[in-house]
Amino acid sequence: MPKIFVVRHGQDTDNAKRILNGHHNTELTDLGREQAGETAKKLKGESIAKAYVSPLKRCVETAQIITEYLHLPEAEVMPDLIERDFGMFTQKPADDILKLADRVITSDGVDYFLAGEGVEEFPIAYARALKVLKFIEHQYPSENVLLVTHGDFGKMLRAAFYGWTWEQGLLTPYFANTEILALER
Predict the structure, then answer these.
(1) pLDDT tens across 57-102, in order?
(2) Helices and strands (DSSP H and E) totals, the chain
(3) Contact at 8 Å (CB) between 85 and 119?
């Protein structure tokens, strides 16, 4: 049975400061590069046909480290793997979410804001995740694929893959930097 390996990018400069980044295009920290290297080692021995990556620097750099270590072709940018747009929350301290947001779901110590000016809401991100999975399952019905993406969007991919609602997806355990979600049926 094929697997879809979903990897969250390594720690970036905003993560290190507990700043919400969304589409803010940040680079990895030294720790983030180390994390990506460790993740590559964990994937060693897995047969991966293709790697796709979010267009944001922190993901591209993470994917580069992983694909080079695994001797895979460079990951192809897939715009739909981008993090949801955080809108008005972009570049705000993560600790301010409860002060700024009217609607929040808290899960595993993380506060997920559900709406706000310019925010891509979770149902839309979930629909994007379904689109990505449909493409992957059609193009690679019997091969493993690597997707390098983001925290919130990774949770939407997992929820969509298993047929959960986006709310159920948010209630799953935290998706940490360079964690691997092996999606398989």
Answers:
(1) 999 999 999 999 999 999 999 999 999 999 999 999 999 999 999 9
(2) 7, 7
(3) yes
Give start and end residues of each alpha helix (H) in the chain: 13-16, 30-43, 57-70, 97-100, 122-139, 151-162, 166-170
- The answer to whether 120 is a known catalytic residue is no
How do residues 140-184 score in pLDDT, each as one tens digit? 999 999 999 999 999 999 999 999 999 999 999 999 999 999 999
| Whole-prediction pTM | 0.97
Distance linking the first and last C-alpha atoms of the chain: 7
The CATH number of whichever domain residue 139 belongs to comes to 3.40.50.1240
Identify the three-state secondary structure at position 154.
helix
How many domains does one find in the chain?
1
Domain ranges, residue 83:
4-183
Q: Are strands 4-8 and 180-183 parallel, antiparallel or unpaired?
A: antiparallel
Among residues 9, 61, 120, 150, which one is catalytic?
Answer: 9
Catalytic member of 61, 83, 120, 150: 83
38 is catalytic: no
Backbone φ and ψ of 11, nearest 5°? -55, 130
